[in-house]
């Protein structure tokens, strides 16, 4: 349950208990306290099999729907569909002497330097969402072992110029939570994506690169990698 000003909403209940009762309880609690109730980022299985459409409006939430890719395709970038990505990757490989390194304690300081520089470029102080993300990067690095995250980084001349953090979501799918790079280096995002999948997640069949949040540039970038499918999320509003 999140309460941030006017953005009051809950997430779908999970677990082995009575999810119907939990959903009704959350709805009643929010209605009593706020006069409205919104259940956000509801997965398709829950929406299809658990939610009573007579009790709730089920509204598609495109901005929070997840992009899922075939890991093999992100590694190989084969065929015409990935021609532009392969070109960007080749430009990066041709112009840069780099090392790919697994993220460990010795890289955390250098990653935070990149994150700080990235925030200066993107003016994080003017965007509440980017400030939240900045804090999330710090916490993710601080709690990597507890969260069972894995990370990869591209190092050029001793500096971290790109990094990515993720975890296994289920036995066949890895989820990428964070990916950052120096935007002035051509092809660095294409390289980071390929190298992280190749070195950390080659055993996974699918890569979930999460949602685009309705940000036009981010949506364009995620679509450019030719998703295998988009996992639709939904918002529930009591009738």
Q: Which descriptors apply to this entry?
A:
239 residues; alpha+beta; ten-stranded mixed beta sheet; 9 helices; 10 strands; 41% helix; 30% strand
Please provide a written account of the structure:
With 239 residues, this protein is an alpha+beta fold. Helices cover 41% and strands 30% of the residues. It has helices at 19-34, 44-49, 71-76, 83-95, 105-122, 128-142, 144-147, 188-200, 216-223, and strands at 2-4, 7-11, 39-42, 56-70, 99-102, 150-156, 159-170, 173-181, 206-208, 229-238. The mean pLDDT is 93.
What is the fold's blueprint, element by element?
Blueprint: E1 2-4, E2 7-11, H1 19-34, E3 39-42, H2 44-49, E4 56-70, H3 71-76, H4 83-95, E5 99-102, H5 105-122, H6 128-142, H7 144-147, E6 150-156, E7 159-170, E8 173-181, H8 188-200, E9 206-208, H9 216-223, E10 229-238
Parallel strand pairs: 2-3, 8-9
Antiparallel strand pairs: 1-2, 3-10, 4-9, 4-10, 5-6, 6-7, 7-8
Write a brief caption for the model.
With 239 residues, the protein is an alpha+beta fold.
Strand-residue fraction?
A: 25-35%
Average pLDDT metric: 93
| Spatial separation of the terminal alpha carbons | 20 Å
Please tell me how large the radius of gyration is: 20 Å
Strand order within the widest beta sheet: 1-2-3-10-4-9-8-7-6-5
Uncertain spans: none
| Structure class | alpha+beta
The string of secondary-structure elements, in order, is: EEHEHEHHEHHHEEEHEHE
Described by the principal axes of the CA atoms, the overall outline is globular
By DSSP, the count of extended strands is 10
Largest β sheet strand count, sense and barrel closure: 10 strands, mixed
Q: Which percent bin holds the helix content?
A: 40-55%
Number of alpha- plus pi-helical segments: 9
């Amino acid at each position: 349950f999140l309460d941030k000003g006017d953005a009051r909403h809950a997430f779908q209940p999970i677990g082995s208990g009575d999810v119907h009762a939990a959903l009704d309880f959350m709805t009643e609690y929010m209605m009593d306290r706020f006069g409205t109730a919104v259940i956000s980022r509801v997965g398709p299985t829950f929406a299809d099999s658990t939610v009573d459409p007579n009790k709730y409006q089920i509204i598609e939430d495109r901005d929070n729907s997840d992009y899922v890719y075939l890991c093999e395709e992100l590694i190989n970038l084969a065929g015409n569909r990935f021609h532009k990505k392969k070109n960007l990757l080749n430009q990066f490989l041709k112009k840069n002497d780099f090392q790919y390194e697994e993220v460990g304690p010795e890289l955390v300081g250098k990653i935070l330097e990149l994150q700080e520089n990235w925030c200066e470029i993107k003016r994080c102080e003017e965007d509440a969402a980017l400030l939240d993300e900045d804090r999330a990067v710090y916490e993710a690095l601080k709690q990597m072992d507890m969260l069972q995250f894995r990370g990869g980084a591209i190092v050029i001349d001793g500096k971290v110029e790109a990094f990515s953090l993720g975890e296994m979501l289920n036995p066949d799918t890895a989820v990428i939570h964070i990916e950052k790079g120096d935007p002035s280096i051509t092809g660095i995002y294409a390289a980071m994506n390929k190298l992280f999948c190749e070195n950390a997640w080659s055993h996974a069949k699918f890569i979930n690169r999460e949602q685009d949040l309705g940000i036009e540039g981010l949506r364009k970038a995620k679509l450019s990698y030719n998703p295998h499918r988009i996992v639709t999320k939904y918002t529930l509003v009591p009738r």
